[in-house]
Amino acid sequence: MSDGKRAASAPWIRTRLRTAPGAAVALAVLVLVTAFLAAAFPRAVDAYETKGLRHDIRLADAGRSAVEVSRPQPGLELPREQREAGVRTPELRRIGGALGKALPDPLRADMSSVAFGVRTLKPVLATEPWLPRPDTVPPQLSYTAQTGLKEHARLVKGAWPTTPDAVTAGSRAVRGAVTEETAAALNMKVGSTLRLPTAVGGPLTVTITGIVAPRDPGGSYWSADPLVRTPSLIPDPASPFPQNYWTGTVLLAEDAGPALLATATEPSLFWRFPPDASALTGPDGARLTAVVNSLESGPGLLKVRAIAGDTAEVLTGLGHIVQANARMRDAISPVIAVAALGIGSVAAVVLVMTGALIAARRKAELALMRSRGGSLRGIGGRLLAETAVTVVPVSALGLLLAVLAVGEGRWWPAALAATGVGLLVCVALPLRTTLQHIRPTLHGAREDIVSARPSRRRTVAELTLLVLAVGAVTALRRRGTSGGGTDLLVSGAPVLLALIAALVLVRLYPLPLRLAARPVARLRGAIGFLSLARAGRSSAGGALPLLALLLALATAAFGGSVIAGIGDARDDAALTTVGADARVSGKSERATLPDELVRTVRGLDGVRNAAPLRVEFGVTMPETAAGGGGAGSGPDDSGTDTGADSGGGGDAAGARATTMVGVDPASYTRLARTTGLPDFPSGLLKATGASAPLPEGAKSGPERVLPVIASPAVAARLGKEQHAVDTLSGNFKVQVVGTVERVASLASTNFLIVNSASLEQRVPTTLLLTGAPDPGKLRAAADGNGEEFVVQLRSEERARYVNTPMQAGAERIYLAAVAAGAGYALLAVLLSLLQTAPERKTLLARLRTMGLTTGQGRRLLAFEATPQALLAAGGGLLTGWATIVLLSPGIDLVPLALAGVAGSDTSPVTLRADLWSLALPAAGVVALAAAVAGVQAWWASRRGSITELRAGDSR
C-alpha cells in the first residue's frame, strides 16, 4: 500500500464461522448429542450398579447383612470384679466405638442401629405354670441385655426395665421387657416373673416391668434376631413324636448383663453393626468382598481381636450378598457391552461421515488454497483450529449435561468418553480433508464408482480387514460365547459382522444393478435405466455409510430382541405360575371349589372361558413303572417333581410321586389354544366305554381303564401298558394315549391328565379363567364363599417381576441404545444422500431442460435411492440375524428378566431373533430413503434451471 502499512487480514476462524454458520451449528449439535451419550453411558452403568448394590444390601435379611462381632463371656479364671466390668455398658460401648472406627473402607456401619450387649446362647427351660404348652412341652426362652431399647421401641404398657442398684454376678433379681407379640403368644403381662437357675445360690428372678412395640420392626435392631421381636413355635428335635414348643427372647435392662454370668446359659458378648449402604458405589463391590473376607479370616480379624479380645469372631452374610450382586452384574455386563460397542461404533462412523460431507463441500475451496501454495500442514492446522473452536466447548457441555442428568457415577470414565468424541472429530475432519489434497486434483473430474476405482492399497487394506474379521468371527464361533464376563471379542460381534457385510456388499452390489440396467435400457422410458445406472455408479453407497447402517440395524435388532425376550420370559413365567389369565383355587391342596362359586365366576363380565381342573398331588406311580430305569426314570430326565420322591437311588422298584390333573377336555382345549400352551389332543380323552362317567354315588373299581395324556417323562416310565393307581379321586387303571410338554398352572414335568368326568370324585380344586374379569368382583366372589379360596391374576403375577435397580437400569440402557441406533441410522441415510445432493439437483435441472417432468424427476430420485436402501435393509437384516445366532448360545436372559423374584422359574432363557426388531428398523431405512429422495425432488422442482446451471459450473 502507498502508506507502507500492511492490509489488515480478517481472522480465519471468525471468517469461516460467519461464512458457514449452519454447518458449524449442525456439527456442534451432533457432537453435543454424541458427547452426551458417550459420557452418560458409563455413568448410567455406574448408577444402576450402585443402586443395585444398595438395593440388595438394604433388602437383605438383617441377620445376613449385619456384621456381628461376638466373644464368650470373660474367663472364669479372672477376678469377679474384672469379669463384671467386662460386660458392663461402658466397657461394651468403648469396644463398640473402637470396632466401628476400625471397620475398613468401604464398609461403614449405620451407627443409629448399632446394638451391643450380653445375650444367652443356650435357651432356658421355662417351667412357670402359666406359660403355654401346646404339646405339653414347656417353652424355652433366651435373654439379652442390649443397648438402645428406648431408642428403638415405644412403651405400650408398664415401665421401662431399669437397674436401680448396681447389678453384679451375685444379683438375684433383674427387670426385663417383652414385645407385644411375645406377650400375646406366651401369656405374659406386666408383673410376670421368670426364674433362671444359677450355678451358686438361688435362681435369678426376672420381673417383666414393661411391654414394648418396635418402632421399626424391619430394622436391624429387631430383625437380626427375629426371636427378639416375635416368638416362634418350633418342633422338638429330641422328641420321637411330633411335638412343638414356644421359643422367644426376654429383653433385660441395659446394665443387667453381669447377672447372667452366674447362670448356665453360656452368656456371650456381641456387637452388631448394620451396614450403611448409602455411601457404597457399584465399583466398591469387589473391595467390599475383600474387606468382608479379611474380617472373617484375615488381617481384619486380627485387628478386631486386638480390640475385642483374642476369642472374638466375626460373623456376617454380607459377603454372600455382595457376591450374588456381582454374579448378576457379570451376567448383565456382556449384554450391555454389545449395545455399548455397537452404538459407539455407529456414532464414530457417523462422525467420520460428517467429516467426509464437510470435506466434500469444501473440496473446491481447499483445492484452490492448495494450488496457490498452501501447505498440507498449514491447511490441516487451520482446519484443526476451526474445528476445535466448535467441538471442544460442546464436548465439555455434553459432559456437563451427562453429569447433571446422571447424578451418580464416576466422573473420569465419562470425561474420557467425551474427550474421545471431541478428539475423534477434531482429528477426523482435518485428516480426511488434507489427505484428499496430497496430490493436486483435476477440476471437474468424475467422482462416481466408475472413475474412482479402488487403489491397490485400498484393496489390500479391505482384504486384510475382511480376513481379520472373518477369522475373529470363526474363532468366536468355535470358542463359544458362554465364558462369562465381558469379552471384547463377543461384544464386538455386531461390529465384525457389519464390517464383513459392508466390505462384501459394497463391492458386489453394483454388479447386479448394471446387469439389470441392460434389459431396462431396451424399454421405452428412460427413468428406469437412468435410476439403475446412477445407483450402480453413485458414491453414496460407499463402505462407510453402509457400515454405519449395518451396525445400527444389527445393534437395534439385537437390542430389540433382548427387550422382547425379557418380556416373553416374564410372560411365560407368569403363565406357568397362574396357568391362565386368572385362577381361583383353595389355600390347601385338597380344598375343592363349590358349585355356586364356579357358577358365579363363570357369569362374571369379562370371563371368556372357564376351565375347571381337579389337581391331585403326590399320586404314587406303580412300582413296575416307577423303577424300570427307562428314559425319564431318573431325576435329571424327569425334571421337577411336585410331590415327594420315595424311591431315590437304592431300590429300582421305588415309587415316584406324580401329579394327576382332571380336566374337562372341551374347556381345557379352548384354554390351551388361548394361552399358547401346546395343542391338547382332547379327542383322546373321550369318556366312553370303560371310562364312561360313573352314576352319582357309584364307586370306581380297579377294572376300569382310563385313557390319560402324560408328560414325556411319565409316558416313558408307563409305556403303553395298563397300570393300576390309587388316588383320592378313585382307584382305576391308566393307559397313556398321548403326551404333552406342559399343563396349565403346573411347573412340574411329571403329570397325568385325565378326563374329570371319568373320576369318582370330580369336584374341581382349581378354576382357570381367560379374559379380563374385574379383579375386585372376582375376589368378592371368592371371599363370599369363605376365606379358604385365593385368586391369582396373571397381570399381578407379571407385575411381580418388577425390575430391581440393576435390571431396570440395564433395560433403560438398552432402550436408549435402540433409540440411539435408530437415530444414527437415520442420520447416516441423510448424510449419504446429502453428500450427493448437489449432483442430483444439477442432474434434475439438466434433465428438465430436456423435457423431464416434475413427476418423472421424483420417480428418478426415488428409484435411484431405493437399491441402496434395500441393500442396507437386507444387509442389516442378515447382520442382525447373524449376530443373534452367534451370541445366543452364551446369553441367558434370566438375570435381566426373572432374577430376584422368589419362586420364579430360573431355567435358562435363550435369546431368540425377534421378527419385529429385525424388520421395523430395516423398513424404516427404506421409507426414510424414499422420503428424503421425494423431498429433495420436490425442493429441486421449486428452483429454476438457471439457478442450478450457471456459466462455468462444473457440476
Strand content: 5-15%
Shape, principal axes of CA atoms: flat
Distance between the termini: 39 Å
How would you characterize the largest beta sheet?
Answer: 12 strands, mixed
- Percent in helix: 40-55%
What's the rounded overall pLDDT mean?
Answer: 79
What Rg, in angstroms, do the CA atoms define? 39 Å
> Structural class, please?
alpha+beta
Our count of helices gives 33
Number of strands: 21
Key features of this structure:
single chain; 955 residues; alpha+beta; twelve-stranded mixed beta sheet; nine-stranded mixed beta sheet; 33 helices; 21 strands; 14% strand; disordered N terminus
Question: What features would you describe in this structure?
Answer:
With about 950 residues, the protein is α+β, with helices and mostly antiparallel strands. Helices cover about 50% and strands about 15% of the residues. It has 33 helices and 21 strands. The strands form two sheets. Strands 1, 2, 3, 4, 5, 6, 7, 8, 9, 10, 11 and 12 form a twelve-stranded mixed beta sheet that branches. A hairpin with a 2-residue loop joins β17 (about 725) and β18 (about 730-740). α1 crosses α13 (about 375-405), α9 (about 285-295) crosses α10 (about 300-310) and α29 crosses α32 (about 915-940). The radius of gyration is 39 Å and the shape is flat. It starts with 11 loop residues before the first helix and ends in a 7-residue tail after the last helix. The model is unreliable at about 1-10, about 625-655 and about 950-955 (pLDDT under 50).
